[in-house]
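To assess whether the prediction recovers the assembly geometry, we first specified each molecular entity separately, as shown.
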Amino acid sequence: MRFLLTIIMSVMLAVMSLSATTAQEADAFRQVLSDNYKLIQRSSTKTVSPVLEAIQNTNFQGAAEFLDKWQEKELWFRKSDNAFVYVETDDKKTYRLLDVVDGTGLGEVPKKEIKQIKPNSGVRGLLAARLVQFQLTDPDVEVRRKSLESINRDPKLEHLEALRIAIEKETDAGLLAEFARIERILTIKFDEDPAARIEALNSFSGALSIDVRASLNLLLTTKLAVAKTLPEDINIARVIVPDQTGVNPDGSAFRLHGLLDMGGDQTELTRDAAYDMLVKANLAPATIDPAARKEILIANIEDGKIGKLNVSELDSDEARDSAYSDLVLLGKAEAFLTEDEQDQLISEHIFYASYVETNQEVTDVAREVLNDINASVTLNQFFDLALDGISLASIYFLAAIGLAITFGVMRVINMAHGEFIMMGAYSGYVVQQIVPNYTISIIIGIPVAFMVTFAAGVLMERLVIRHLYNRPLETLLATFGISIALQQLAKNIFGTQARPLTAPDWLDGAWVINDVVSISWIRIAIFVLGILFFCMILFVLNKTRLGLETRAVTQNPRMAASMGIDPDKINMLTFGLGCGIAGIAGVAIGLFAKVTSELGNDYIVQSFMTVVVGGVGNIWGTLAGATMIGFLQKIIEYFNPSNTLAAQTYMIIFIIIFIQFRPRGLIALKGRAAEA
Amino acid sequence: MNGISKKLLTTALASMLATGAMTISASADDTIKVGILHSLSGTMAISETTLKDTMLLLIEEQNAKGGVLGKQLEAVVVDPASDWPLFAEKARELLTVHETDVIFGNWTSVSRKSVLPVIEELNGLLFYPVQYEGEESSKNVFYTGAAPNQQAIPATDYYLEELGVEKFALLGTDYVYPRTTNKILEQYLKDKGIAESDIFVNYTPFGHSDWSKIVADVVALGADGKKVGVISTINGDANIGFYKELAAAGVSADDIPVVAFSVGEEELSGLDTANLVGHLAAWNYFQSAESDANASFIEAWKAKMGEERVTNDPMEAHYIGFNMWVNAVEAAGTTDVDAVRTAMYGQEFPNLTGGTAVMLPNHHLAKPVLIGEIQEDGQFDIISQTAEVPGDAWTDFLPESAVLKSDWKDLECGMFNTSTNTCVQIKSNY
Amino acid sequence: MQDAVLTKFLLRHPSVLVFLGMLAVFTIGVTVLSEGFGIGVVSTSLVKTLGKTLCLALAAIAMDLVWGYCGILSLGHFAFFGLGGYMIGMWLMYARTELIVLKANAAAALPLTPQELSDAIGVQIFGVVGGSEFPAIWAFSDSFILQLLLVVLVPGILALVFGWLAFRSRVTGVYLSILTQAMTLALALYLFQNDSGLRGNNGLSGLQNLPGLEETSQADVSLWFFWGSAFALGVCYVIAKLIVESKLGNVIRAIRDDESRVRFLGYNVEGYKLFVFVITAIMAAIAGAIYYPQAGIINPAELAPIASIYLAVWVAIGGRGCLYGAVIGAIFVSLLSSFFTGGQIPNISLGFYTIQWVDWWLVLLGLSFVLATLYAPKGLGGLVDKFKKA
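The predicted structure of the complete assembly is given in tokenized form:
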């Protein structure tokens, strides 16, 4: 209570900023610092709290600034006498030192003579918590917001009072709501009046935010216990039957369904764990496990024999068991309970869990609110999963769309497709090196990437692919050769390190719908880009002269030629277009993942499968294929969250089986086009 | 059939023999050969080329100082191309064809396991510079990187004691280092009273880039009101996507800190760290360490490789390993493997971070453990530095390893069972 | 009787004799020059490289049979190669570890129970990858004979099931290529998982150390395997030749040239294709089972799609539809690869830039694929034929 008073007093002191610092307080402050210099220089969460309290107790006006600088890693000390200083520097070589108490200059020294103090984030959190009282009423909105955050991170009882005082003075409407929300969270946690807590609880009905759920879950923390009969005076959460009941998020129990239970629901307490509880509670004798039995056997070897048995015969569990029971009969070892006897003991006791919170009314309301929240969390999780699925699908689609043209429409097996993606990503990187503004560099980078890869595609078509149109499988080999050559070339030019391709600020961060559903802007951008390309290619292929001619050339080159279309030119342009789009996809993929020479490798097999699963020769098919693969992978990941690799494996196996049944893909071309 | 294919074969064979002979004639006694076995192509080139360059720099500097035993050092660089069987082949080539006296090399554990039988068969000497999972001890390998107790355990202690983390997400790439490290950490956390349900484990493939769901899962862990911390053993360039997603999701280091064991200056140079400030890494070395030796090492590195290049922990491991080897050779007066090995025990060399590294009889170093926070410029702010921690080949936190001990000096055994007082095996386990 | 047929066959196809003769001369030559049994000019590491190259040549013959003769461009045959390696690797690891465990426990106070023995072996094998329990797929690993049978059975059955499904639904051409690629990718990803029970990314290692023969020098062991590789290559070459020169071979070639026409003639195309697919898968598996004990380690990266593409490239460079072409291609490219990555070729300094072969070799290799497909569609074997005609 005295501490609380100090806090309130110092808050008031700070708020009214009355007294001029008396020399006394300054001296006390200096004394505290010099007494505790070691704990401040190498601070640890474990030891720093008393120091902080002592600093605060000096009531020195500059203490807040001191704590703030300390937190911001702006506090230094002089190596010669361990005196704490603030510093100013122009060239990072020599530093002007300022006294922490009165700000007087202490001369200029080279960097060698001073050292920066770097508190870890645990200590910084404690500092922030101390600073809350000064900052909750700070004139700067941002400072107030930050201090609210630090309260929320680690709420303390004393914060509740400070918060309630500060809330009266808050003028910013947006922040006021946040103030009120945090105040309610703290009320649930610390208030002594059950009615106030229940009111605060009810106000959170349907709230999805993590901090609210965290405070509810903490309120509903339970602890396990075992007894002969169920005690009366506890706030019981559930009765547990070993191996047969599981636990709900709200602390209640449910019965497992035995064999029918496929969902991976697990029992809360296994039989063995239950018996261990009994042993710990001194309600049953300890078990003697086989390893311990073996020790006892070894200890009792006499002349190569244990009892009447030769040591060399003890090479099976049965023999060892019988040797052990011999020892028990001889009184040389302790008997242990059989499984049945253990089961008997377990069934004679009752296992239960009780809430740590003793007020049953509060836990009842909390349970109700939490169940309500959890239901909508589950719903939102599915929505989030769907967003993830769409996002992954659009990445696959973007990676595969160029291939949908070169392979899908033209039937050229371009194994170097991945390297065109890589080339696009590196083009983006190079542009970013020349144009430092991220927004402009992306705007320039996309057309540059298109042009570079378009040109490379045209070149490749003219030099290599043109000669192999009637030998499709050999295109595969030639383009594979180009692929490894390009990959190594990229390594020789750009080195093996991953290169940064940084998104502009406006693509940073995520679109947060609520605390469960959010998606990063960069993924949204990829989605939009995918849609854009889809429409564009659909338009080009179906509504333009080039598209018409492309389709004509792929379906029957000779006929097309006799109609006055130059098949060579069309093939060249179409192939270039496919490669150019792969280049743009490269910029997008580089923005969200990484730019390395291996970038293409990650997407090439996936892209081919996307096109094949969707159905060759059809952009709609590629869209369908990407969607199916993306969603499928997310769904498998959902069921097996701890192993992403397994999800990928099962997805590919699924694709293999799928193609057996729909060899022409999801959206198959019919009639003559199918034979082309 | 035909003369020409025969001719082709014979020429191929003849040229092979010719090169073989050439190398033999070149390996006169005027130089000491140092083999460098790092991938220069393939997936691992991204990390390993740097180490090759480091070795070349160190050898260059040593030669400028007059070499070793009055002879110049000659680097023999081969490219195992991130192909694990090729590592064994190249190691054999280095030892038998090029007759190198020592090999500095390898990055991944699997490449080390591939090389082990060859090195042991031919009694070679390998310096392995990367942090690894432990649970191994070879007579012919000196492990200059961190064992789990020199990186993972101190970092976990930091989480538990300094940050008060109560719930752990162990994210890793699906291979041996993360698997074994996480197994050790899981047991360690359970010993410290963390419930199994409060440990979330996830494994992803190499080069994974789709992180949104995993990051969302981690954020959702905080819903039960416990402080969540992430321990990342994600390898290589998968980190770039992971950190980008982390930044996009706005996960602040104050809410959910991430400590990484495989992310150093080199990896961070591939991304914009503005949104990652405050996340952590645990190593035995950071470029930002303040010491004169470090300053001159960085200066030499930048002079050779370019201003924008950074230094990292495995480079320091090679720095220490190479210098210890030089001193051991000088002490032994010969490059003979057994003599050098004996001279290695107790070798001391100053760390770049201050303090002194000591080579222990279990072929590990005693080194300080540093924890750094990522800064805006891609460097680390060192916020915690322990005293020297002796590396432990066999972890104390798994029951089957706790009884094992490695001591090549007195016990002459790398896998000594202290409960039965027997040597399980002289060769290492691979 | 059998002998008579073989003699007649050999007389009709003297090129087989030439091939076998060259193989024999090569084998004896290497043996005489080796460190193990000869004058020591050829290093053990080169013997291993040559032995492995012969295995790759065998895999290339299988690839040539399935692609060059039957027209199925399988981009997954290295999966069978790898599976063969895994099967033999399981026995090698188990047997070697069992000996170590037994030796270490020879002086133990109590004899080991079967369970304890299996646990101890499990800890030794899986301890390095963070596990300790024996997965079910290791059930037969203690028996050399059974595991040897699995070398043939596992890849064979996989090829049978996969081929039956794919051919039945008439998946052909590029689609089949991509499907086989998906198969090897799925297998590689599966094996990459630690939970697969085959030590995940680490794979099986130390395979060059034969159980019970720790004291035998690798110089000898490498030669045994070299002979084994040469023998397997010779036998499979003859088998392959027998197949392609028979009536069966004619049907297979006809399927390659026009599948529907063969079907209309009443042949069971799917059956023929399945036969070739399975028999080549088994050949690849045998090659793998001899290859990996020489390489010393097998891990999932070996099954990555790119390995199978390389296999196809060897055959293309060597010459499709020509068995010795496949052999030449495999030997030529893989030896050249190991030559260029060995750091034995001096770098070329151009003054302003130094060409380092390590950096530029892959670029050259890639471009040579392009040139080979463009200008030598029949590969090196084709050049040989041209030379012969001239």
